[in-house]
Amino acid sequence: MTHTCLIIEDCSFIREIYHLNLKNSKLQIIGEAHDGKEGLQKIKELQPDIIILDLVLPELNGFDVLSQTHQLSAKSKVLIVSTMADSNYKKKAMNLGAVGYLDKPFTKLELLNAIDDITLQYDGVQNG
């Protein structure tokens, strides 16, 4: 099953890395946003299955986006990918509803494994 994905990341180079690494995966990238405010608009508009979200963003930070995501798109599952590797940040993200947390820099395998974990959770909800 193919899942839709929205990338919210301010660095164009990293957005391109996502496109390259996810090219032949279970994900169809349906949009991207370069800041938190645009990210919220795209979440509401696109209703993605999976959101790849950076924490350090212009306009609104990733925590602000994450705290509003469920209200805008209840089905969306959020993977945080951030340089903020502190356990307190991870705990806060998970408490706000993230289903995964990946540290930057990441390898293609780490990204694909994190996406697989999320799609399995998503498929379990759909089929359960």
Describe this structure in words.
It is a single chain. The chain has 128 residues and is α/β, with parallel strands linked by helices. Helix content is 48%, strand content 21%. The protein contains five helices and five strands. The longest helix is centred in the C-terminal third of the chain and has 20 residues, at 108-127. The mean pLDDT is 94.
Short description:
The protein is an alpha/beta fold and 128 residues long. It has helices at residues 12-21, 36-46, 62-72, 87-95, 108-127; strands at 3-8, 27-33, 50-53, 77-82, 100-103.
What attributes characterize this protein structure?
single chain, 128 residues, alpha/beta, 5-stranded parallel sheet, 5 helices, globular
